[in-house]
Amino acid sequence: MRVLAAMSGGVDSAVAAALAVEAGHDVVGVHMALSRNRDQFRSGSRGCCSIEDAGDARRAADMLGIPYYVWDLSERFEDTVVADFLSEYEAGRTPNPCVRCNEHIKFEALLDKATALGFDAVATGHYAQIVTREVPGADGGARTVRELHRSPNDAKDQSYVLAVAGPERLARAMFPLGGFASKDEVRAEAERRGLSVSAKPDSYDICFVADGDTRGFLRDRLGSRPGEVVDVDGEVVGEHDGAYAFTVGQRRGLALGRPAADGKARYVVDVQPSTNTVVVGPAELLSVDRIAGEKSLWFEGVLPDAADGGAAADGGVPDGVVVPDAGGWFDAEVQVRAHGAPVPARVRADGTSLEVALTGTPLRGVAPGQSLVVYRGTWVLGQATVARSWRAPAA
User: Fold this and answer.
1) pTM
2) How confident is the model at residue 323, as a pLDDT?
């Protein structure tokens, strides 16, 4: 196959490209220039998309003996990922820019351009697995379904941020690092192949906020908007410089004028952009066991109505192994943070919306705008954006 290897300049993407070459594919390396500041340099594990990263990617491509190009996607990145980040915070929601980057850049702009140029697939250094299985087809024959699964490397698993890719784009994706159980194994593989990035530190934080100061970034872009911090009774307990800089569940940086009457810590329990108000309250108000999601998508072969348009010719389920009950509910696990733990739940899908009823320990600090991913074991079933969350009344 003709494979386009996305090379960020880090060790993961370099090893992924090497494995694609070793598998016999015709590989071309490409570095996505996403930052408008081409002169920036990394500071340890902060920042990316710099001249240094592009140089590291080029050296890795030269070592592998593959063609290498730099594609300037900075305008697309600014207009989608950064713009979404700003608008979501401004609306009192909590976005995940890594999810949006995978959606709009790696599995839209990059993949679509690669397809237009005649490539069969895009290989990335993500930690996730693609598992194939044969299922009955509508014509009575068999067809292959590609499933997205967690990586065996629990510490680095990225299936959560990849769930937004959906079935069509997953069909043209390759994750060569899917079988690695640890980052040390990947670094050892890079060292064995003579790749100079074998000891390069990982990038953390938000890539376009290289100094890690998210509040400062938002203030520079959105401006100062002084407002009030109030408790759940509406009493003013502090001031802020912009409600957009706060998120549900936040404890630090509240700068409250006086402590709570009971002396306990207070957290952000609501952000009200219409009045530029931040509401704080006790920790127990953060616990929820009901979540409503919007803009949901499901992978192929998950639900009966998500495959082949519904029932098979014999009236049975065509290839969905997740069969809802009479009320439309099915058992699964849900995860609302990239490195959060999945929790058991009952899930009901309704078009592009879904409802989640947690069946175990309630989740804490679930904010609108977060990505909610539905799992069954290691298998990613689907994804949605959190619209709201609440605590069901006691029976």
Assistant:
1) 0.90
2) 82
